Automatic annotation (TrEMBL):
The keyword Lyase applies. GO terms for molecular function: carboxy-lyase activity; hydrolase activity. Residues 4-252 form the Amidohydrolase-related domain. InterPro entries: ACMSD, Amidohydro-rel, Metal_Hydrolase. It holds the Pfam family Amidohydro_2. This is Amidohydrolase-related domain-containing protein. The keyword Transmembrane does not apply. Keywords: Lyase. The lineage of its organism: Bacteria, Pseudomonadati, Pseudomonadota, Alphaproteobacteria, Hyphomicrobiales.
Amino acid sequence: MIVDCHVNVYEDEQILPLFTASTPKARPGEFTLKANPDVVYEAMRDVDKAIVFSLRYKDSIGIDGDDEVTARAVAKYPDKLIGFAAVDPRRPDYMDLLVHAIEDLKLKGVKFGPIYNGVSLLDPRLEPVYEYLQRHNLPLTMHMGTTYGRNAPINYGRPLDVDTIAMRYPDLKMVMAHMGHPWYEECIVVARKQPNVYCEVSALYYRPWQFYNILICAQEYLITERDKIFWGTDFPFTQVGESIEGLRRINDQVEGTRLPRVAGETIERIIHSNPLEHWWHGGYPG
């Protein structure tokens, strides 16, 4: 089984000029900006399931998504897609929107980007979010790490804040996206320490030297043996095939050297990791 745990979905009209202008800085190479439900479904043809969410990052990178587009995508392709809500704690109605997304739209988790919304994980506005998710057995996946967006405060993406929240809410399942790059060591030690915290490798393969070091570090801290690391693309920034190939070829760059190798077992365990077994207490509720 292959599950893409990190897929963006939004309608074409939700792409703002800021996104078009700033995304060339996101990564080397060309990639599509389109991620409407039909485009996403086609892109996910080679995975069994995909977790999708629509970003509310209008002022930071120029995507003005909403939970309605996520719900429409899931309703159209229920065999493939699992929907998460997006939360922006700056909005006065953020808890009303969250309750609507979960209880009316039937979304199954939450995505939050502290750097993109300019709100630290330690901000008191997030306390009702944590309490609601813990009470309803819903996972929280978070953008952890840096960004190309000029308007986003990078310091809010440091993984050490996750350790604090995990201690306060021990039954809240938390997922650190992008291995917290470039602070991947912080991400790894927090995931090792906290039983309710996981991480994932989306949008990393195209920086192969950093990705290699992340995986070696994860092996050395033994979290690769404990179902702590999950696989994803961050579509549309990367595609399924290239993300899998990039992971499977991670050792190419150290051939002919005495540097350590990422174990084949580590690689395949990540590719075939299954968040549906781990991100909800008792497994995915369906």
